[in-house]
C-alpha cells in the first residue's frame, strides 16, 4: 500500500476544477510525523541532525512545494505557459524533497539493522549475488555522489529486478528513472555533517544499523502489486 | 600486433573519458577553494573603490544591485554549488553566475572568476545550520575587495 503521503502528493498535483470551471481549494501537503523520537536513531544519527532535518529541511520542502503548486494552479488558470515551465524546477526540487524525505523517515528504525528475510532477501540474493554485495554496491554508489544527492535501492517494475541508483539533489527516483524506491540514503551534507563532518563514508556505513527492513519489504510488496 | 595496439589505445581513451568527471570535480574544487581563501579577508567588507566600483556601477546600476543579484542567485542554488561575480573577457562586462557542485567558472562559462561564494552545506552548516541566507548575508562583511580588484585587473590584461 502506498504511504498516505504519496497518495496525497499524487492527488494534489493536478488542480481540481469545480463544475463552473473555477479551481477548488486543494489539499496542502503536510510534514509527516517521525515514527520515532528525534533521539531514537542514536548513536547512528544524532538527535540534533534528526530535528533539523525533519523540522527545518523537510518542512521547508513542504512549504515551498505548497507555494509552488499554488503558483502552478494560477499559471494554468491563466494559461501562462512560460510561468508553468518556469515552475518545473521548483516543483521537482521541493516535490522531490518531500517525496524523498517522507520515504526516508519510514525506512529507518531504531529497531532496524541486520539483514532482511523472506521475499526481499530472496530477490536481493537473486539480483546481486548476496546481501553483502548489494550493501557494498549501494554504499559505494552513494558515497561517490558528487555534491548533494541520494543513493537508492529501487525496483524495476518492467523487468522485476532490483537496481541500485544514485540521483543528484532531490531528483525523485520514480519519475526520473522509473525505478520504484525501496530504500534510500540521503547524502546531502545536512544529513550527516553535524555528527560525521566531512566523513561521509562513516555515516553511510552507520546507516546500515538502522535500516527498517520491514518497511522496505512492504515497499517491495507494494511495488510488485503495481507492476 | 596492430589490433593489440588498437585495443590498448581505445582502452586508454575509455579511461581518459572515465576520469573527466573526477578531474572536473576535484580540479574544480581545488581551483574554487584556492580563489575563495584569497577573496576573503578579516579586513574586508565595505564597498570597492576605483575601477572595480566603476565597472560594477556600469554593469549593475549600483553596488547594492550587484550585491542583491549575487546574493539572490547564490541563495537560490539547488543543492551544492557556488555563486560567482565574473568578468566576460569578450564583452568586457561583469556578470553574476551560479554553478552546481564544483564546476569551475572559467572552463564552464568563459567568465573569469572575480569573487565567489561557496554554498555547499559544509561551508556554513556548523554555524548557520539550514539558514543559508544568513551566511550569504554575513559573507559580505569579509569580501577582500583589494584581491577582487587585482583579479579584475588581471582578467582585463588577458582579454
Automatic annotation (TrEMBL), chain A:
Domain Manganese/iron superoxide dismutase C-terminal: 116-219
Subcellular location: Mitochondrion
InterPro entries named in the record: Fe/Mn_Superoxide_Dismutase (IPR050265), Mn/Fe_SOD (IPR001189), Mn/Fe_SOD_BS (IPR019833), Mn/Fe_SOD_C (IPR019832), Mn/Fe_SOD_N (IPR019831), Mn/Fe_SOD_N_sf (IPR036324), SOD_C_sf (IPR036314)
Domain Manganese/iron superoxide dismutase N-terminal: 28-109
Keyword terms: Manganese, Metal-binding, Mitochondrion, Oxidoreductase
UniProt-listed Gene3D superfamilies: Fe,Mn superoxide dismutase (SOD) domain, Iron/manganese superoxide dismutase, C-terminal domain
Pfam families referenced in this protein's UniProt entry, alphabetically: Sod_Fe_C (PF02777), Sod_Fe_N (PF00081)
Self-association state and partner proteins as the record states: Homotetramer.
Record protein name field: Superoxide dismutase
Organism: Tegillarca granosa
UniProtKB/TrEMBL annotation, chain B:
First-level EC class: oxidoreductase
Listed PROSITE patterns: SOD_MN
Residue stretches making up the Manganese/iron superoxide dismutase C-terminal domain: 48-151
Keywords assigned: Metal-binding, Oxidoreductase
Pfam short name (any one): Sod_Fe_C
EC number: 1.15.1.1
Reaction equation(s) it catalyzes: 2 superoxide + 2 H(+) = H2O2 + O2
Keyword presence, Oxidoreductase: yes
Family designation: Belongs to the iron/manganese superoxide dismutase family.
Name of the protein in question: superoxide dismutase
Amino acid at each position: 500500500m502506498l504511504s498516505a503521503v504519496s497518495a496525497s502528493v499524487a492527488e494534489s498535483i493536478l488542480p481540481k476544477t469545480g463544475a463552473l470551471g473555477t479551481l477548488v481549494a486543494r489539499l496542502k501537503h503536510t510534514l509527516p510525523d517521525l515514527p520515532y523520537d528525534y533521539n531514537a536513531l542514536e548513536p547512528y544519527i544524532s538527535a540534533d541532525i534528526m530535528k533539523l532535518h525533519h523540522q527545518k529541511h523537510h518542512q521547508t520542502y513542504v512549504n515551498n512545494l505548497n507555494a509552488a503548486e499554488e503558483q502552478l494552479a494560477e499559471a494554468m488558470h491563466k494559461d501562462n505557459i512560460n510561468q508553468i515551465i518556469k515552475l518545473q524546477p521548483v516543483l521537482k526540487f521541493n516535490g522531490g524533497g518531500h517525496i524523498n524525505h517522507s520515504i526516508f523517515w519510514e525506512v529507518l528504525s531504531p529497531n532496524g539493522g541486520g539483514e532482511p528475510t523472506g521475499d526481499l532477501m530472496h530477490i536481493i540474493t537473486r539480483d546481486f549475488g548476496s546481501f553483502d554485495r548489494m550493501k557494498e554496491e549501494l554504499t559505494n554508489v552513494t558515497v561517490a555522489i558528487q555534491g548533494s544527492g541520494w543513493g537508492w535501492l529501487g525496483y524495476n517494475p518492467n523487468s522485476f529486478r532490483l537496481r541500485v541508483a544514485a540521483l543528484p539533489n532531490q531528483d525523485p527516483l520514480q519519475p526520473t528513472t522509473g525505478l520504484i524506491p525501496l530504500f534510500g540514503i540521503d547524502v546531502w551534507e545536512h544529513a550527516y555533517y553535524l555528527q560525521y563532518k566531512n566523513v561521509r563514508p562513516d555515516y553511510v556505513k552507520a546507516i546500515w544499523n538502522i535500516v527498517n527492513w520491514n518497511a522496505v519489504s512492504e515497499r517491495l510488496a507494494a511495488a510488485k502489486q503495481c507492476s | 600486433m596492430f589490433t593489440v595496439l588498437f585495443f590498448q589505445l581505445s582502452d586508454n581513451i575509455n579511461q581518459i573519458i572515465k576520469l573527466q568527471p573526477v578531474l572536473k570535480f576535484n580540479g574544480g574544487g581545488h581551483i574554487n577553494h584556492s580563489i575563495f581563501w584569497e577573496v576573503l579577508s578579516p579586513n574586508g567588507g565595505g564597498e570597492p573603490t576605483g575601477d572595480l566600483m566603476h565597472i560594477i556601477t556600469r554593469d549593475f546600476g549600483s553596488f547594492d544591485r550587484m550585491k542583491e543579484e549575487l546574493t539572490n542567485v547564490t541563495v537560490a542554488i539547488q543543492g551544492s554549488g557556488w555563486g560567482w561575480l565574473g568578468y566576460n573577457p569578450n564583452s568586457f562586462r561583469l556578470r553574476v553566475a551560479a554553478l552546481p557542485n564544483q564546476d569551475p567558472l572559467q572552463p564552464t562559462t568563459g567568465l573569469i572568476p572575480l569573487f565567489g561564494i561557496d554554498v555547499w552545506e559544509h561551508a556554513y552548516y556548523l554555524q548557520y545550520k539550514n539558514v543559508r541566507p544568513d551566511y550569504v548575508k554575513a559573507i559580505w562583511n569579509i569580501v577582500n575587495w583589494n584581491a577582487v580588484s587585482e583579479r579584475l585587473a588581471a582578467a582585463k590584461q588577458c582579454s
